[in-house]
Amino acid sequence: MITVEPPPPTPYRYGLLEAATVATPADPHAFMGVQFQPECGIAHLTPGACMPYDLADSDVGPVTVNVGTTRNAALNGTVGEAGDYVIDWGDGTTTVGSTLTGRSHTYTADGTYTVTVDGPNGYYASLGGVVVTNGAATGPFTTTAYDTSPATKVVDTGRELVEVEPFAVYRLHQCQAVGGLADAETRATRAFELAEGRAVEEWFARFLSTNPAAVDLTPASGAVHPANGLALLEGVAADDYGGVPVIHASRGLVTILDGLNLVERQGGHIETILGSLVAAGGGYSEALVGPNGEATDPGAAWLYVTGRVFVWRGAVLTTEPVLDLSPPTNVFSILAERPYLVATECIIFAVQVDLSMCCAGTGGVVADPASGDDLPVLDTGTDTIEGPGGTWTPPASGNLRAVTVTVTSGSVEVDGDEVTAPNSVSFAAARGEDLDAPTVTADDDNDRAVVSWVVAP
Predict the structure, then answer these.
(1) Distance (Å, rounded) from C-alpha 418 to C-alpha 291?
(2) Is the per-residue pLDDT at 364 higher than 60?
(3) Sheet harboring 269-272: ordered strands across?
């Protein structure tokens, strides 16, 4: 029998590593732990375009100047805080006093003058065009005095540095030594890379659910419709973050969101209709529970939103292969592992969504708006098929409503059409109808696919 090397398998797509910023640290000492300053996009408002003053409620009162027939001017006005008020009469003369009642000055020449008043706490008034004519009374000339003290501004004191602790992902690869040990490291690395994404997602799910900064937004009435949950997280991310956030959900829940037309594929990632990145984590299915470890209600799932996700990782490290020479096993073992640092910034919010509400409504039991009848409670699941000869068996009970076939390695036949990795194909029933189960077959050794499905009773 001839030994052949099958094509390498393809890890599943659209998980956390596709939604994160992934980099290799330049300094290997980073894997002893790092810290960084988060960038949280929060801004505040002050009245007036580019105005460093608060003029919204700073109108102190009127200031008036009347000029008599002998060029004698009288100024009256409302003061603000107690202190010295300096009047510049516009002819080079200034006078100082604690009030603005009956302040006077006599000009020596006819003309048009600008009178200004400066006082404590930014008090300011300016009267332009004060006409002085010997033998004629003019005025009154009136303006408004303002307290132009700097506005009280809300200033963020800055976010605490994010400290990131390292962890390692590893896999012990065991395989028969067919063809010798020359490619043992390559095969072990390939097997490791196939599974590492899910392991990182499991770690990050536990990080989210045990993080003291995580906030549960689930209302007291319980889990909400998936669309309402996504809307809640999108809204709070815009309020408290400002950047492009990351939505975290199990792959089954993301399939439901896709069925609701709330997410879409864009190149090598998934995003919401508002452009938020989506991490469809295979490692989230069981590990992603509520904040403080809150359990998931039956028929529900948790949806999280965070700021950007940063992933720093090193090279894959492997040990020398250890060969079991005792026949007939002839098995070698090799350990592959990679150091990781994973972090997010600024926000961690979560909401529990009810998977039975995926088609309409927001209440506990969803009613059809046309008939008033209760809509069926839906169930979801995933199956894996592998070659050679593997076929998908639809759920034994319930009415099939939606199916997504994601090819992770090689190719599979879906209703007679070949679908190659890493592509996927989806089917959905029309409203009120059931879906005919597609035929999914994996013929060869390297063929593998994951089938996600939704059924109603």
Answers:
(1) 43
(2) no
(3) 215-216, 348-354, 300-306, 246-250, 277-281, 269-272, 263-266
Rounded Cα–Cα distance for residues 64 and 76 (Å): 5
Q: Please name which of 127, 143, 142, 66 lies closest in space to residue 102, comparing C-alpha atoms.
A: 66
The residue ranges of DSSP E strands in 222-314, in sequence order, are 246-250, 263-266, 269-272, 277-281, 300-306, 309-313
DSSP 69-94: TTSEEEEEE---SSS-EEEE-SSS-E
Closest CA to 171 of 154, 156, 190: 190
Type and span of the H or E element at 198: helix 184-210
Cα dihedral 321→324→327→330 (10° resolution): -30
Q: Nearest CA to 430 among 402, 404, 398? A: 402
Q: How far apart are CA 305 and CA 185, in angstroms?
A: 38
Radius of gyration for the chain, computed over Cα atoms and rounded to the nearest angstrom:
36
If pLDDT is split at 50, 70 and 90, which confidence band does 362 have? very low
What are 136's strand-pairing partners? 133
- Render pLDDT for 112-168 as a digit per residue (tens, 0 to 9): 999 999 888 778 888 889 999 999 999 899 888 877 665 566 666 556 778 888 999
Distance of alpha carbon 33 from alpha carbon 56, whole angstroms = 49
Q: How far apart are CA 288 and CA 281, in angstroms?
A: 9
The whole-angstrom separation of Cα 26 and Cα 408 is 32
Query: What is the helix (H) or strand (E) element at residue 202, kind and residue range?
Result: helix 184-210
pTM for this prediction: 0.59
Report the C-alpha gap between 263 and 269 in whole angstroms: 11
CA 198, 204, 208 angle in degrees (round to 5)? 145
The CATH number of domain 379-456 is 2.60.120.10: yes
> What is the H or E stretch that residue 425 is in?
strand 424-428
d(CA 15, CA 20): 9
Q: How far is CA 368 from CA 30, 113, 227, 262, 414, in A?
A: 55, 78, 17, 21, 33
Q: How far apart (Å, rounded) are the C-alpha atoms in residues 56 and 62?
A: 16
Cis peptide, bond prior to residue 328, ω within 30 of zero: yes
Q: Which CATH superfamily is domain 59-147 in?
A: Immunoglobulins (2.60.40.10)
User: Are the C-beta atoms of residues 299 and 48 closer than 8 Å to each other?
Assistant: no
CB-CB contact of 409 with 421 (8 Å) = yes
Mean pLDDT of all residues belonging to the chain: 82
298 prior amide bond cis, ω within 30: no
What confidence score (pLDDT) does residue 1 get? 62
What residues does each domain of the chain span? Answer: 16-42+159-357, 59-147, 379-456
